[in-house]
Automatic annotation (TrEMBL):
Keywords: Signal. This is Pimeloyl-ACP methyl ester carboxylesterase. It comes from the Bacteria. The keyword Signal applies. It comes from Caballeronia udeis.
Amino acid sequence: MFQARPRHLLLRMSLAALCCVSCTHVFAHELVLHRSSPDSAEAMEVSSVGDGVVEDLPLQGGGFQRVMYSAARRETKGIIVMFPGGTGEIDIEKSGHVKNAKNFVVRSDDLWRDRGYGIVLVDALDHQSMRGQRSSAAYAEVTKKIIEFAYRQANVPVWVLGTSQGSIAAMNAASHAGRTQLAGLILTESVSILGGSHETVFDAHPDDVRVPSLVVANEDDRCKVAPPSMAQSIAQSIRRAPTTVMTVSGGEQRTQDDCGSLTPHGYYGIEEKVVNGIVDWMQKTQNRP
């Protein structure tokens, strides 16, 4: 992944031996989106100019888990660990530049930070596709290290949020976190129908989630593996925690791929509406007696 081993086997071997040494890069970070033609692979870029941290959480086999923290722009209410969809490869550079910035969790960076939430972006492990790996017990161990990293940034509540394929990772993180380790779980346009990655949110042990959870579904999402009609089923699978379903609608279709980032599936054009709804739920959950 000297008999050549499959990449996925190497990935699992590396995941199983995550250690706690880390390499940290401090950078200046400010989200700046540059748009060209909508279908371009480099339609958006992120430039850096404010405070932030890039950290590599190394794996014993030589790989690493790269994460990037961007601080809130006002008094910090909490930190959200963001798991992107697709292959998970957003390509965070040591400078804080994000090459693949089209994903919802990257595009919405400013919106969360303006509302008082620090953001931890999670890249793919060692630049390898995360498809088929996110629901594994080995990756659950990696998510624990990521959550520990989040808590080192500020003494505030921590949520995990996943979008599309990334919801599998967020569900796995929440299902393996202790009851007091997370403030909540947020699942957006979650993969619930088996497709090319051969895993869904239902494989990530929803029955073990013990924290307040939110399932967000866009009525106009046409991605075949993440139909909005499955939102209630996802919520019902989280049987041991209070769970809310939030329905939104709208979004622009700028690519032919219905599961792409620049579509209703990726909340393209309705980012602020979605973020406001999620933040409202987070604040109500925090204030719950």
